[in-house]
Amino acid sequence: QSVLTQPPSVSTAPGQKVNISCSGSTSNVGSNYVSWYQQLPGTAPKLLIYDNNKRPSGIPDRFSGSKSGTSATLGITGLQTGDEADYYCGTWDSSLRAGVFGGGTKLTVL
Amino acid sequence: QVQLQESGPKLVKFSETLSLTCTVSSGSISSTSHYWGWIRQPPGKGLEWIGSIYYSGSTSYNTSLKSRVTISVDTSKNYFSLKLSSVTAADTAVYYCASAIRVVTNLHHWGQGILVTVSS
User: Are B26 and B3 in contact (CB under 8 A)?
Assistant: First the structure.
């Protein structure tokens, strides 16, 4: 059971947009920066969003992040078949004094 | 940009100690803005944060693994290491090393990962 809760899967059509949620508590999402990762099949995770809403260089602005209270959201617009991947949120938990990840969300672009 | 490469035995026997090294290139492990971490992923499952270290040697560990984990850093050789003792089949996973910038969970760069299998 992961400390952060994500929907196991989401699906949508090419060209559409999707939001992936990440729910936590006051000791993690509510008080620390959230990051988001994309993991394509058979590859290492890649940072998409850090500090809740910042994109590393090279990440297109189709990807966005937001946070409100104890929940964070990854938004992806203009979906492409190449966006099919597992997406993970991560943050620090001040009570556990450790990093924590969500269980991951499998995105299918039909 | 920072590049990381995991190395170590891919097969470890039950109850023994798993030892991995992460070599850092195109960057200094003594950087004051970086943290260095280990994350694992059992086959078909999600990511699990194992722990992290700062160049000074300050560490943080996953509470569920804390009694078995040691992460260390060698600034002279520009690498950091993971030791996980008393392994069981549940420790079979792809182990990734990663670097975080400014915030320990902002994992900007990742190694390619190494599959470690625990067997009897």
Answer: yes
- What are the tens digits of pLDDT across the range A7-34? 999 999 999 999 999 999 999 999 999 9
> What are the C-alpha distances in Å from B109 to residues A96, A106, B3, B16, B89?
24, 22, 7, 29, 28
Rounded to an integer, what distance in angstroms lies between the CA atom of residue B51 and that of residue B118? 20
Calculate the CA A8 to chain-centre distance: 12
- Contact call for A47 and B107, based on CB within 8 A: yes
A99/B106 touch (CB, cutoff 8 Å), yes or no: no
Q: Which of B49, B101, B105, B115 is most worth mutating to test chain A (most A CB atoms within 10 A of its CB)?
A: B105
Residue type, A18: V
Residues of B in Cβ contact (< 8 Å) with A96: 63
Structure tokens that stand for A81 in this block: 């078949």
pLDDT of amino acid B55: 87
Q: Which of A44, A50, A99 sits opposite B49 (nearest CB)?
A: A99
Predicted confidence at residue B103, as pLDDT, reads 87
